[in-house]
Amino acid sequence: MLTAQSRLRDFPSLAHRAYLNTAAENIPPTCVHDAVSQYMRDKTEGMRGRVAHYAAVERCREIAARMIGLGPAEVSFCSCSSEAYNLLATALQLGPQDEVVLSDLDFPAGATPWLNAPSPPVTRLWRAQQGALRTADLTPLLNERTRLVQVSLVSFLNGHRLDWAPFLAAVRSHAPRALVSVDVTQALGRVALDCAGADCVISSTHKWTLGIHGGCIVGVPARCAKAMTTRAGGWFHLENAFGPDRFERAVGKPGAASFAVGMPNFAAIYALDAALRYVDAVGVDAIAAHADPLVLRLESGLQALGFMPMAAQDPHRCSGIVAVVSDQSGALHAALETAEVHVMHNAGRMRMALHGYNTAADVDRCLEVFRRFAK
């Protein structure tokens, strides 16, 4: 991932293109291809294959827990972050007497369950200033009625990386009843997770972790298990799914286990296990040490051309994302595609994402196209 040789070996599809779109879709390493193939071999064993399937879940639980700083019993899996947040809503059962704080840099999955509740809680919006979330703007939104504060460690929108410690201190001080949920989808596998003390950790699996669609990691510390136990129907998460009283009551497993309401997506879990072990073997610190200078190189190059990033990078705490807005975005995106430079384009926003498989040549290739559109 970090050398020309390992890049070509593990990501052969990157040989002739600059792929700067990991914040939307990753390029899985070849070991993930092998893991999905192994799932299919196990699947062909029919019911016997479930022995291998369940073993894969436990292997993946161990590495996922280690990478988000929790124990295996505090981690479970569901199908996507949207499912996880909707299940979280069943656990909290918030109503009009409660308040939820959201940020305008958050992904819709973490924001909309509260808006669509039958009796929705009051939502308060923490607005970014110049692309960044400031604790001073958060504290006036917090009070005794605040039950949940939902944030992303790294914003999908502009790459802003939350300054976690002062944020968490403000919540604990000004909203003592509030639980803190953090989406680490745009962080896990790319930056060190500095979100200790969170009450719920959620991550999709098809971005920086290098897994595939159909998976989601949910982490719930044991101290929060009672408050974070879902009230959903299903079977896989129930203690008495096939017991004699199963039509009289549903007894859910507590905490993280309650988020796995149905049969696991074994293919996604095989893939995630291989992907996380690949990332772990390379080392998140090594990935950051390699990719952060590329992020700063891209940011400074864009600024020199007159394209101002939506959020400034902290050189000591980079995220993997640089985003700009351009009134020429349509033509610019077409030119990038023609040059085999792949970025995200949406509503005038161009978002570039740099992982451990990116190179200085990728950055320069991207900047060369932007140079044609410089004002």
Spell out the blueprint of helices and strands:
Elements: H1 4-10, E1 18-19, H2 30-43, H3 49-68, E2 75-78, H4 81-92, E3 99-103, H5 108-115, E4 122-126, H6 135-138, E5 146-152, H7 164-174, E6 179-183, E7 200-204, E8 216-219, H8 266-282, H9 284-304, E9 321-325, H10 329-338, E10 341-342, E11 344-346, E12 349-353, H11 360-371
Parallel strand pairs: 1-10, 3-4, 3-5, 5-6, 6-7
Antiparallel strand pairs: 2-8, 7-8, 9-12, 11-12
Helix pairs in contact: 2-3, 2-8, 3-8, 4-5, 9-11
Number of strands: 12
Mean pLDDT: 96
N-end to C-end Cα span: 35 Å
Helix and strand succession? HEHHEHEHEHEHEEEHHEHEEEH
Q: Catalogue the unreliable spans.
A: none
Shape verdict:
globular
Compute the gyration radius: what is it? 21 Å
Judged by helices, strands and strand pairing, the structural class is alpha/beta
Task: Work out the strand percent.
Answer: 5-15%
Q: What would CATH call the class of the largest domain? A: Alpha Beta
At CATH's second level, what is the architecture of the largest domain? Answer: 3-Layer(aba) Sandwich
Total helical elements: 11
The portion of residues assigned to helices is 25-40%
Provide the domain count.
2
The name of the CATH superfamily of the largest domain reads: Type I PLP-dependent aspartate aminotransferase-like (Major domain)
